């Protein structure tokens, strides 16, 4: 935490961040609730002058470690949105996924956050796990909808190299029809999809922080393994905790070309309700865009091109750019 505060001060100064200019803060990248609440106090003191009024400040939390005291104090420091890594309301599935919490602790954590008065509460659900069926996922979703959540993230299981599931392909179900059924069921329960994995009870509960990435705004990346992007250049602090602690301001840099930025803007714009500025496309690309509009895959509104089906976002972008 000392190293993190050192890096935070360094970045605020290096990038000449102005007072009242930071719109959102997201505390994540693991389990922030395992860090004692008082360790965050100075972090919030450092960033306070830079925050716009009413800034969205989100923390991720594990249902087991997000105690009443922790949540109350984080809320007192200014956190107004909390995202719980619930994954499932089925104890067998939680055990299979290696999660430390159980169904009751997940329910209690969400109810605690609501009683404390957070403006937004997100619940993460994972689907596409071995043994999942539309019935079992609907059961998870029904429990989520019965709780005072304002936002839902539904992720298809992704297996990363180096994790315990990496050599067990049977763990994951690849079923596009399942995704469509899930999205349809969430929509029927009044949570509107605004990005491939994100759904909100109302427009005001959509994650403003996520929109910052999708709209290609500058952002600072603070902490071991974080990613920042300032002025078309990504930077990566050390992933190794030990190396990060010894030198928190030693970064790897990645220069983004105009083509890189354009490709990402199109990919990200098609993955969410943001769409893509029409002027970004060349004449040849517009021929393909118009072709997709004709085939009812995309639509045009106020000089922006929107995607009707987020699950096809990568394919549509690749077709236009190839």
Automatic annotation (TrEMBL):
Signal peptide: none
UniProt keyword list: 4Fe-4S, Chaperone, Cytoplasm, Heme, Iron, Iron-sulfur, Metal-binding, Oxidoreductase, S-adenosyl-L-methionine
SUPFAM superfamilies: Radical SAM enzymes (SSF102114)
GO biological process: porphyrin-containing compound biosynthetic process
Short name of any one Pfam family annotated for the protein: Radical_SAM
Subcellular location: Cytoplasm
GO annotation, cellular component aspect: cytoplasm
Top-level lineage group: Bacteria
A GO MF term: coproporphyrinogen oxidase activity
Main location: cytoplasm
Family: Belongs to the anaerobic coproporphyrinogen-III oxidase family. HemW subfamily.
PANTHER family: COPROPORPHYRINIGEN III OXIDASE, RADICAL S-ADENOSYL METHIONINE DOMAIN-CONTAINING PROTEIN 1, MITOCHONDRIAL
Job description of the protein: Probably acts as a heme chaperone, transferring heme to an unknown acceptor. Binds one molecule of heme per monomer, possibly covalently. Binds 1 [4Fe-4S] cluster. The cluster is coordinated with 3 cysteines and an exchangeable S-adenosyl-L-methionine.
Protein name: Heme chaperone HemW
Gene: hemN2
């Amino acid at each position: 935490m000392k190293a993190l505060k050192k890096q935070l001060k360094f970045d605020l100064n290096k990038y000449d961040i102005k007072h009242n200019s930071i719109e959102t803060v997201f505390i994540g990248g693991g389990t922030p609730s395992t860090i004692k609440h008082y360790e965050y106090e100075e972090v919030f003191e450092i960033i306070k002058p830079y925050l716009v009024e009413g800034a969205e400040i989100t923390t991720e939390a594990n249902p087991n470690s997000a105690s009443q005291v922790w949540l109350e104090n984080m809320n007192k420091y200014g956190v107004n949105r909390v995202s719980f890594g619930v994954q499932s309301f089925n104890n067998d599935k939680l055990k299979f996924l290696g999660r430390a919490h159980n169904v009751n602790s997940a329910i209690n954590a969400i109810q605690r956050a609501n009683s404390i008065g957070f403006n937004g509460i997100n619940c993460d659900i994972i689907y596409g796990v071995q043994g999942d069926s539309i019935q079992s996922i609907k059961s998870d979703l029904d429990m989520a909808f019965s709780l005072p959540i304002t936002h839902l993230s539904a992720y298809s299981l992704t297996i990363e190299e180096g994790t315990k599931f990496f050599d067990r392909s049977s763990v994951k179900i690849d079923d596009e029809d399942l995704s469509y059924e899930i999205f349809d069921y969430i929509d029927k329960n009044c949570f509107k999809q605004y990005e491939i994995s994100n759904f909100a009870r109302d427009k005001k509960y959509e994650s403003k922080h996520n929109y910052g990435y999708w709209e290609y705004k500058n952002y600072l990346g603070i902490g071991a393994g974080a990613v920042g992007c300032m002025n078309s250049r990504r930077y990566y602090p050390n992933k190794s905790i030990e190396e990060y602690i010894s030198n928190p301001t030693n970064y790897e840099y990645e220069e983004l070309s105009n083509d890189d930025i354009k490709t990402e803007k199109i990919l990200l714009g098609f993955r969410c309700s943001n769409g893509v500025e029409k002027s970004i496309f060349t004449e040849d690309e517009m021929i393909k865009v118009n072709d997709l509009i004709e085939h009812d895959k995309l639509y045009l509104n106020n000089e922006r091109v929107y995607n009707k089906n987020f699950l096809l976002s990568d394919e549509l972008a690749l077709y236009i750019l190839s």
